[in-house]
Amino acid sequence: MANLPGVEMIALVNSALCLAVTVAVAIALKGRELRKQLRVLRALTTYVASTLLLNVYLLSVVGNSLAGVSLALSAASVISLWAAVYGLWARGE
Hints:
Blueprint: H1 7-28, H2 34-61, H3 65-90
């Protein structure tokens, strides 16, 4: 990782984008057809899980504060995704 300068910044931008997309999708899914909601949530789950796992790996390899912030943003994305799925489940869909 030492020969890839800026990889921590790329991870930070990716994590922030992941959180923004997760929140935007959760808001946009309200009132949509169940099939569309499930299709979008399935794709979003892959993106969120990949981002989280990559940030865990980055933190273990690099171990600096930017990697920690990236991991925290990824954790917030997971919580946002969980809230979106719980919202669907609570409505009985």
